[in-house]
Amino acid sequence: MLVLDRDSRVALMALAACALLLLGLIALAGESPLRVLAILIGDGFLTRAGLADALVRSIPLTLTGLGVALSFRAGVFNIGVDGQLLIGAALAMACAPILGPLPSALALPLLLLAGTLGGAIWGGIAGILKARFGANEIIATIMLNYIAIQMVSWLIRGPLQEPMGIFPRSEKLAASLRLPILFDGTRLSAGLIVAALACVAVWFLVARSRYGYALTVTGKNADAARYGGIQPAVIAFSVLCLSGALAGLAGIVEVSGLHGRLQEGFAGGIGITAIAVALLARLSPLWVPVAAFGFAGLYVGSDAIARLTAVPFPLVHVIEGTIVLAFLVLQIMPKAKDR
Amino acid sequence: MDLMLLTGLLASGVRFAMPLLFAALGETMGQKSGVLNVGLEGIMLVGAFLAVAFSVATGSPWGGLLAATLGGAAMGLLHGFFAVRLKVDQIVSGLALILLGLGLSGFGYRLVFAGHQTIRVPGFERLDLGPLSDLPVLGPLLFSHHLLAYVGIFMAVGLWWILTRTGLGLTIRAVGENPKAADSVGIDVDKVRMRCAAFGGAMAGIGGAYLSTAQLAGFVEDMVAGRGFIAIACVVFARWNPLGVLAVALIFGIADAGQIRLQPFFPQIPYQFFIILPYVLALVALAGSAKSASLPAALAQPYRKA
To answer: Does the pTM of the predicted model rise above 0.90?
Structure first.
């Protein structure tokens, strides 16, 4: 039988309190928790439409979750995924008119590359601030988020606005620059393949390369890393670039695969969910898509809950917060057994 | 720019500075004791929501303030429980607070206020000091703020005094600099840290309350808009000195008030470039001050008894 020490018991009680809080909130909205749970699981995972929608949403969550996992592994807290995603999408959209006339087989990869580059630049700014000036990356990346939101707001009302000039949004991407839809009747695009390839690439980087080793060592013990000839500042800068690159790729994949154009709030809330995704995957690249799919389903289900019941949508963030706390509690469990 | 305009700018700068000031003062005490809370944003959101909800319910902004303070303290304690008691990663625990705060405030707002188009929120009255408030320049600048603003300034001085001149301050600093030494002279490290974490949460709650019931009048989802993180930047830039925090918060407040007032003067410049000014300022401040010897040595490091 598993014997738990006092800390673990207290931790489990804290989790139980969080679960009670969730039930209390649902009761407060005057709904039965069972019905809400049934809708969450039923609509999020068990219907064909829900499943397809969850897959669609898991694409950006996988890409950004990979980026967050990479940076967290190195002990670098990239909270600015949203900004990197926006700047990636914006830079790619700025390049779109040049790429449009090219054959699709050439233009589409270049478009994705431009998005990746944009995200890397935005992440790299935080990277320079951290590596060169020692600025805390959490605050730096968040500030860059707000700056990116305003920059996109300006771009879609200014230089990148559709020629009609009525709505604050960009022109639609040319067909040659759209990621193809995988299955007719769904919105699932080839972005799914991009995300899968990214998983393999990041897994290889983490598990099989010297760089991945350097990341993990730096994250576990920066002093030991320095002793081993690894420069934590270089790691911090490079991992913020990489993490931003994945976020930027997610941004242009969202635009090219799903929305077709740049508009306001097209990817709101992905960044904060990406953190929960990466943590739930325990920062392991191969678990990221699984966690991303789980959270995507949670979002689809929460949409349905907000539509069908009196329970407001932001409950999903309370659930996410609870999951992050659960992750922390699980972390101390094995330690409790060691003692 | 004429004098009237400048006075107005500085006066609203003071108003804009207050949410940052309260949150940053609380964070200063937490960090001084070794507890890093990156979740101020979430706590401020909850504080802002509770303040509005309970101001409406009780008919008085003070009822709202009380609720926000208690709600903030509860979230601070939750963070303390994970960061201090369970000794898990303080940054991740803070991130959880952001999610919880975003969820709880948004949930509560939609539940309580959905469908109501306009709700009159009983806000804080400006202090009227009679002839003093009517003084030109000095009146609007110094003698016409909400009572809460004076409380904030008083707290900055008081906390500075506590930290640097009292035994309690020495205890807090010892716990944040060298918990082992503090432990060896009989200080209960975790208890001090828990209390500082709760205090920090309560102050962030007050900061949120100020935002929704004194600076603005009402709650909008995600209304804190990064101020929780700017507050942390204030702490770093002020080198963990409460008086410095007051000065830095005022700089940010004036920058924020200034960007709004500058917009009409430069219609040819897109307004978005003004909105980003406080955020850019925070980046510059961070870059200019990060490598500081004032950083509490045991910040974000849990203490385990040997």
So the answer is: yes
